[in-house]
């Protein structure tokens, strides 16, 4: 099952790269929505910091929740595959971009070993107008890594 999710995130990474190439279709996001998007990511990161599997799981879309099955499995995946997201030393948010009901939010993350990473979170607007995280692709920030 783990390899299925690794493939999912690799496909997401490629899709996000393609969407970046199509940036001309992106629209600016209202400041109130920027705050909501960044708040949900901050909530997930805070839940990871406290090993709060349920809290982290609640920030994911229903589709991700269904695919993962349990909050414990979700936390284990992030802890094992994305330690820089699970326990960042520092996080810097960049300006998010919106395209057709989804938002891409870029973060610069420094891990506990002072290595720099770029994390691209994809969020989807839910029927109740809240935002939930549907994926995250992480790559080493080769320009800033020490």
The H-and-E topology, N to C, reads as HHHHHHEEEEE
Structural class: alpha+beta
Q: Report on the biggest sheet.
A: 5 strands, antiparallel
Q: Number of DSSP strands?
A: 5
Strand content: 15-25%
Give the distance, in angstroms, between the N- and C-terminal Cα atoms: 34 Å
User: Might you state the CATH topology name?
Assistant: Nuclear Transport Factor 2, Chain: A
Residue-averaged pLDDT: 86
How many individual helices?
6
Q: Judging by the overall fold, what is the CATH architecture?
A: Roll
Q: What is the radius of gyration?
A: 14 Å
The oligomeric state of the chains shown is single chain
Descriptive account of the structure:
By secondary structure, this protein is α+β, with helices and mostly antiparallel strands. The chain has one domain (2-140): Nuclear Transport Factor 2, Chain: A. 46% of the residues lie in helices and 25% in strands. It contains six helices and five strands, in the order H-H-H-H-H-H-E-E-E-E-E. The protein has helices spanning 2-21, 31-49, 53-58, 62-68, 71-81, 83-86; strands at 90-93, 97-99, 102-110, 116-125, 131-140. Strands 1, 2, 3, 4 and 5 form a five-stranded antiparallel β-sheet that branches.
């Amino acid at each position: 099952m783990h390899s299925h999710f690794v493939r999912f995130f690799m496909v997401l990474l490629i899709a996000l790269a393609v969407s970046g190439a199509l940036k001309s279709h992106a629209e600016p996001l209202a400041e109130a929505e920027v705050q909501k998007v960044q708040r949900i990511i901050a909530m997930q990161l805070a839940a990871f910091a406290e090993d709060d599997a349920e809290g982290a799981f609640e920030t994911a879309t229903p589709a991700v929740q269904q695919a993962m099955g349990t909050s414990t499995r979700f936390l284990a995946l992030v802890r094992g595959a994305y330690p820089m997201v699970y326990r960042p030393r520092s996080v810097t948010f960049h300006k998010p971009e919106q395209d057709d009901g989804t938002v891409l939010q870029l973060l610069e993350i420094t891990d506990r070993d002072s290595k720099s990473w770029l994390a691209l979170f994809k969020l989807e607007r839910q029927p109740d107008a809240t935002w939930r995280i549907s994926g995250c692709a992480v790559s080493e920030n080769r320009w800033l890594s020490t």
